[in-house]
């Protein structure tokens, strides 16, 4: 969180953050094309696969560079455990969106958003991007499974929305092991999203209470 | 939020708020009649349609007047994005109910409700009005779809309640694209409603804690 | 809330609270017997019905006495709207359990529970009693309906638990109008219960934070 | 909570906490083996049963020793009601994980985790361990029941996740009395888990707000 911008690691991270975020969006797009367009002509499929693998290699290279610049060994893996998870499962990279926000912020001189707006923006963006990744992966695992109820990508998106908001109709639901494993991760995200919305609202109300108490004349 | 009542824009808004809210309720009613009474005699159907379109034109006129009075161009659209959304989807106009409250409040001299009561009232009113709009739209999209489980307006209301409270039984659920799109919006409302209730309760508890701490004698 | 114990109304309420709570539990019990034991011998059924009606008459009498003692007219109905609701739907009387707590508290000299324990106790007791009333009513409406999934009282209790915690499996769900109307009320209770648990937890955490901040030495 | 480490009871608890936690994990494991491997050779089944019973006897012995050392009679049962529940239902022992944390903490000199990290860690660990116990018990009750939808242990785990996050798809759900009773307990855990996540988030946001207010220069 508190990055030292004078160190080589800090300078690398400040420079690499935005290109890497673009790369992770491209990764998501190339995965989406492969999953959603199975009838694509073979040469284009190969291009997609190549792009996916090349981007993954890029993520590995960035991780290694940062590991080297940090001058540490296992300690780096422990303190950067989220980066390690994200390296193994690149579809989760959008959770780093908060760092991108910081990188953008440093370049401009505009005042930062209020904590509130930041929490809501971050929770919203993360929910949208992770939801899209999750819907893709679940669709990939489920659409050809016997007895599946998630048969189109639309079903997967619908199921994702009902899961992330913890509504959970159950009219469509994953039936394979891999699909259910991804689903459990998304339920966790839904719980966190609910916590973010509720906590944020609660904090805003308490702040407004406190401000009203101050504004009120003491004699009133 | 902080309207300048001396400016032409502020005066217009203060005067137009209540009639426009009445117009939006009438809009909802005329839409409801068209959706719920398909067997209505053709002339009455035409009257309903005419009322709906006339009210929409009224909303457009109000938006244009305010845009003109503001003396701005695209900036107005950005700062009034909620008004723009509400212009395109007039069924969402009831979310402006909080402004109506302010307009009413300014005319009376009664002390305002506590923040708590206001949040609960606003959340409750918005939930009821948006829930009714949503149930109407979903029923409109679903009732004739093949394989639909939402076949009567009662089913739509029942489904709306289970969605807004995030219970989500799933015994009835939308199956069409349009219906599911509306449903996703309503899940978002449900999440916000849950946040409002929870946050409000939490803020009230914390305030009560603080007050009890003050009332307690320091030696106790 | 702030009852004046010197006034005739205050003295009446202080004395009548506990017997009326016992009466409302008895009301619940006699309703339960009628609903759950349809094969009861006719004389016993009549006794149950008589007890139910007599208790209802008692509640009406209490309401009228309080209305008279208050010396007001419509104002009493407005400020005591919860009492009015509870008069029309006596199965909801258990929500008055918080007043019983106060009545008991006044007689003892023991220190009151912390706000936390009180909120949790109140939310828990209300959830149990309202849940039981709701399960009874829903079972009463549903068990003989065509296509019903709630066929035994056990099903009704199971459905109640999944509704009050907002889990909402939907394996059993009401299908009649009356059953769904009661269900909507119970979803609202579930939302409030969730708000109470979450808000209470949040308030406790914030209080503990504040205390730890105070205990920590300033140099630390 | 506030254990006196000088008393015989305090010393016993400090020493016995970690071995007892290991024993409760072993209890869970031996129960899991018996439930999940019904085709185990009879001698191994007997070993499992013997281990289970021996560990239960150990828990009873620990309870009796602590009851004796406390020098009290029924008062001990009342103030240690959670221990009493956990004695009767040893699968719930993992809820004592917070005490294990304290016992470990006392031995090290490292600074304690922040309240936040502790709440999240405790909620997460409890959810995982109780969820596993619950999934085992529900699977045990359900897998051979007529009309059951929970037929494999995987189904039970999937159902557990959807229950603890209050999503509740309902594609699989318990149908026996015992299974539903356990399910109700798990819904309660889910509600508490939701409260912990939300409350924790809310408390963190409020703390961060307060800190930002302090850091901001007063003229700003």
Total count of domains of chain A = 2
Helix vs. strand class of chain A: mainly alpha
Largest sheet of chain A: none
Given the structure, what is the number of helices of chain A? 8
Detail the poorly predicted runs of chain A: none
H and E string of chain A: HHHHHHHH
Our estimate of the beta-strand percent of chain A is under 5%
- Gyration radius of chain A (Cα, Å) is 21 Å
Main interface: chain pair and counts: A-B, 26 and 28 residues
Helicity of chain A, as a percent range:
over 70%
What's the rounded overall pLDDT mean of chain A? 84
> Can you tell me the overall shape of chain A?
flat
**Assembly of the depicted chains:** homotetramer
Q: How many strand segments of chain A?
A: 0
Q: How far apart are the first and last residues' alpha carbons of chain A, in Å?
A: 44 Å
Descriptive terms for the model:
homotetramer, 220 residues, mainly alpha, Helix Hairpins, 8 helices, 74% helix
């Amino acid at each position: 969180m508190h990055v030292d911008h004078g160190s080589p690691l800090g300078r690398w991270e400040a420079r690499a953050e935005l290109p890497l975020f673009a790369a992770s969006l491209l990764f998501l797009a190339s995965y989406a094309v492969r999953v959603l367009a199975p009838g694509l002509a073979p040469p284009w499929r190969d291009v997609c696969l190549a792009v996916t693998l090349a981007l993954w290699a890029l993520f590995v290279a960035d991780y290694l560079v940062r590991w080297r610049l940090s001058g540490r060994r296992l300690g780096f893996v422990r303190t950067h455990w989220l980066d390690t998870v994200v390296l193994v499962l690149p579809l989760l990279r959008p959770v780093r969106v908060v760092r991108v926000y910081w990188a953008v912020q440093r370049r401009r001189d505009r005042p930062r958003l209020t904590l509130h707006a930041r929490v809501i923006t971050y929770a919203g963006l993360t929910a949208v991007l992770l939801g899209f990744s999750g819907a893709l992966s679940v669709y990939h695992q489920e659409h050809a499974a016997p007895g599946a109820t998630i048969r189109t990508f639309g079903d997967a998106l619908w199921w994702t929305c009902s899961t992330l908001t913890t509504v959970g109709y159950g009219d469509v639901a994953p039936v394979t092991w891999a699909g259910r494993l991804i689903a459990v991760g998304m339920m966790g995200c839904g719980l966190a999203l609910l916590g973010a919305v509720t906590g944020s609202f609660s904090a805003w109300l308490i702040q407004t209470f406190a401000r009203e108490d101050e504004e009120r004349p003491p004699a009133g």
